[in-house]
Amino acid sequence: MALIDRFWPRQKPAPQPRISPRNIAVISATRNFEAAIADRLTASWKSPSQTANEEIAAGLETTRNRSRDLFKNNEYASKFGKLVVANVVGSNGFTLQSQVVEGAQADTLARDLIEAPSRNGHAAAPRSPGA
Questions:
Q1: 130/101: higher pLDDT
Q2: Which sign, positive or negative, has the C-alpha torsion 63, 69, 70, 76?
Q3: Are 98 and 115 in contact (CB under 8 A)?
Q4: Helix 52-73 and helix 75-84: axis angle, to 10°?
């Protein structure tokens, strides 16, 4: 080996460049966006460039009509629609319901003053404190 080393001296491996912590963070950050990779798993993934509102507007009429048809012809969807109307929307539509309390009792005067503008756009007379 000494004879070979004399004619072809062993070369020291080139020093590896030192990667700073900032560069490590940059490399790690670029590797976190795996959803941007186009491979066999993501090839059929639709990724539209429209906003959510634009997507909704484009298919609104069709979606609305299919929804109405589903509520008419499917008993589960019909029941769900009735539950939403009864428990979320209510018989008068969306209305403000104040939950002001003072101590342990409901503050009906404050509630009425807060809710008055939302009642069909007209201010109503406050309820009596005992009501």
A1: 101
A2: positive
A3: yes
A4: 120
